């Protein structure tokens, strides 16, 4: 990390320092039922606080509280807040990995406490492959901001190999392990020389080698493990796993609520006091149910099969029945007062699980964000609360390029005289790749481009969300893989006007003067605060436009700061001493001012390389070499400038649109200026 960053030094009003939270080991020292009883009088306000601080992406502003998963569970149990969690399995293909990461983003918006990723021995699960369990779990933590549990099995693995995987998981920021024996590769379990044969041995090994770093989950079987001699023996094995160091239990699926509730009572009777989460499987298809039942060696109750058989070829009917069945069972569990959270086996699908959660009232898409940008759940980034605005629409890229930093800005950006941004050489890392196929991108961005104006149209259709000439809506651009954000919609009319004329915007924000932090569009941070923004505009435009713009900007100084650069590195700015400029900040009760977003001139030069490269990597390469379409994109890449503008007078009306209007007025005048000044 750049040694010049003064991460915790105060600077006027726009700064704060935050002590780095130390993980503290806290255990649930009473039974599930007594914890629930003790918290029965908890107020709604404490419940909201617990829920906010326990969502998958823990707000940095609450970094004084333990971020361990078991402590999040404890706080939710004490406050009486129900939660849910989600299980996924690694995909088989690279495109499947891209789709799964998109699903993480969508399902993460509903507020799961955590997700877990299964371990598939046949799929090289501990490797760096994009389809491995290790990489999928790491991506969920680092790039999607989701608290994640990595499954780990004993199957076909030596003790040293397991230790290596655990060390790798720790390095990648994973903090939670689900310790399992695993299913045998063949018909019967075969002992691995130098390995483990039981999950309890794996739990002991994790505690021996890594002390208390990992929170450990183990599996429970409401009807007993199919290989156990008896139900009672299996309960004793579960207690051995908990006594060895497991923090909580997730159960195998079941079909009747009373099955789980009896199991829960039996566990409490023999002294298992940790959280025990029921595994919920919404039936989504006849064949998937048969396959899962075969693997888990469970029997489906006759009252369920009698309903499924007549509709087994009607997927929609089965899914609707599965949703109804899951909702009814979950309500019984939650109403019992003994079950604070539900764990869903999603089968990498989202419709059924999301519908069940909505009907239960557990799906809560909170528009408030902990910070204006997507946070990472990696432990070393937990104090990070400042970033340059340039990566606002590419947060995964920013996280990737700063993953090797030892420290992260906290309180203020500081003097970034030499920020060590990593190179982004692989634009097709599965967590950075566009969710859209090549065919879909061509339909949106043009099978054939005729001129620069064709590109202007693409940007305009993206801004307006209207269909292009082929009847296709433009839902993304190389710099923005999502439709226009609500905040950007506030500027929609002005953005449409300037994009039509070749000011190709890729980032913008309106000026905000003291909006409540709970505002559904621009709000962020804890409730009861106020947020502020300077107007910001970032765009590509031609050298002719830049020449006129530079003349116009002289009359707007010092109100407007600008930074203009081309792909060759020509650099024009009026930033004082290359210092960062805070463009977003918030004021909250009992806290110093928080400034999470800055315009940093030095970081802009690193962003410049990425922003220009995206023209080629994600757009030009859609076309054949030397084709007219590719040459048009290449020309823009080679000759246009990247510009950012900041209007520092945030209490006044945004003047940046007038700046652009003045630029066009100068260009349209009979004595338009020559263009030599801004040529590369």
From TrEMBL:
**Keyword Amino-acid biosynthesis attributed:** no
Question: Which cofactor does this sequence's record say it needs?
Answer: FAD
Instruction: Tell me which domain of life the UniProt entry assigns to the organism this sequence originates from.
Output: Eukaryota
Every copy of the MTHFR SAM-binding regulatory domain together lies at: 368-668
Describe which pathway this protein belongs to, using the record's wording.
One-carbon metabolism; tetrahydrofolate interconversion
Q: What does this protein do?
A: Catalyzes the conversion of 5,10-methylenetetrahydrofolate to 5-methyltetrahydrofolate, a cosubstrate for homocysteine remethylation to methionine. Represents a key regulatory connection between the folate and methionine cycles.
How the protein assembles, per its UniProt entry? Homodimer.
Q: What is this protein called?
A: Methylenetetrahydrofolate reductase (NADPH)
């Amino acid at each position: 990390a750049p040694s010049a960053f003064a991460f915790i030094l105060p600077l006027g009003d726009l700064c704060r320092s935050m002590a780095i939270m130390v993980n503290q080991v806290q255990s649930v020292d009473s039974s599930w039922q007594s914890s629930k009883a003790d918290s029965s009088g908890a107020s709604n306000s404490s419940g909201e606080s617990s829920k906010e601080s326990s969502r998958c992406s823990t707000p940095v502003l609450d970094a004084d509280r333990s971020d361990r998963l078991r402590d999040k569970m404890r706080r939710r149990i004490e406050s009486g807040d129900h939660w849910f969690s989600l299980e996924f399995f690694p995909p088989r293909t690279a495109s499947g990995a891209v789709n799964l990461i998109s699903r993480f983003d969508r399902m993460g918006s509903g507020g799961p406490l955590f997700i877990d990723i299964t371990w598939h021995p046949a799929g090289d699960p501990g490797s760096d492959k994009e389809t491995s369990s290790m990489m999928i779990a790491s991506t969920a933590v680092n790039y999607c901001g989701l608290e994640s549990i990595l499954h780990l099995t004993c199957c076909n693995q030596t003790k040293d190999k397991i230790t290596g995987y655990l060390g790798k998981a720790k390095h990648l920021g994973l903090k939670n392990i689900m310790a399992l024996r695993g299913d045998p590769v063949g018909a019967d379990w075969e002992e691995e020389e130098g390995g483990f044969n039981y999950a309890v041995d794996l739990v002991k090994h994790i505690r021996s080698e890594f002390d208390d770093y990992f929170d450990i989950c183990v599996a429970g079987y409401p009807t007993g493990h199919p290989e156990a001699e008896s139900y009672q023996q299996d309960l004793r094995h579960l207690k051995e796993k908990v006594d060895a160091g497991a923090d909580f239990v997730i159960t195998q699926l079941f079909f009747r609520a009373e099955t789980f509730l009896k199991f829960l009572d039996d566990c409490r009777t023999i002294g298992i006091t940790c959280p025990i989460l029921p595994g919920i499987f919404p039936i989504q298809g006849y064949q998937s149910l048969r396959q899962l039942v075969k693997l888990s060696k469970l029997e489906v109750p006759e009252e369920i099969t009698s309903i499924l058989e007549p509709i087994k070829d009607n997927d929609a009917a089965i899914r609707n029945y599965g949703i109804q069945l899951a909702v009814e069972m979950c309500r019984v569990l939650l109403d019992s007062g003994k079950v604070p959270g539900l764990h869903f086996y999603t089968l990498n699908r989202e419709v059924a699980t999301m519908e069940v959660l909505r009907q239960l009232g557990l799906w809560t898409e909170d528009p408030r964000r902990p910070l204006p940008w997507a946070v990472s759940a990696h432990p070393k980034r937990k104090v990070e609360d400042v970033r340059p605005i340039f990566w606002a629409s590419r947060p995964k890229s920013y996280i990737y390029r700063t993953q090797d930093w030892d420290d992260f800005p906290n309180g203020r950006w500081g003097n970034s005289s030499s920020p060590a941004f990593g190179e982004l050489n692989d634009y097709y890392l599965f967590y950075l790749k566009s969710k859209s196929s090549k065919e879909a991108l061509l339909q949106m961005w043009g099978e054939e481009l005729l001129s620069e104006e064709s590109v202007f149209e693409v940007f305009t259709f993206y801004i307006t969300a209207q269909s292009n000439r082929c009847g296709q809506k433009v839902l993304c651009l190389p710099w923005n893989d999502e439709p226009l954000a609500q905040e950007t919609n506030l500027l929609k009319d002005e953005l449409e006007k300037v994009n039509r004329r070749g000011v190709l915007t890729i980032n913008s924000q309106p000026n905000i003067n003291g909006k409540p932090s709970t505002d559904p569009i621009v709000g962020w941070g804890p409730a009861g605060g106020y947020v502020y923004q300077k107007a910001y505009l970032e765009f590509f435009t031609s050298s002719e436009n830049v020449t006129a713009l530079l003349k116009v900007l002289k009359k707007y100084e010092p109100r407007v700061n600008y930074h203009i650069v081309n792909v060759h590195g020509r650099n024009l700015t009026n930033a004082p001493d290359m210092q960062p400029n805070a463009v977003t900040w918030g004021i909250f009760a009992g806290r110093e001012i928080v400034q999470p977003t800055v315009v940093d001139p030095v970081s802009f030069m690193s962003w410049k390389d990425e922003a220009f490269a995206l023209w080629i990597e994600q757009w030009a390469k859609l076309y054949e070499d030397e084709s007219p379409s590719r040459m048009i994109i290449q020309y823009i890449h080679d000759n246009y400038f990247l510009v950012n503008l900041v209007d520092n007078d945030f209490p006044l009306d945004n003047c940046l649109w007038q700046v652009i209007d003045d630029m066009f007025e100068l260009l349209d005048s009979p004595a338009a200026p020559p263009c030599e000044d801004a040529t590369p």
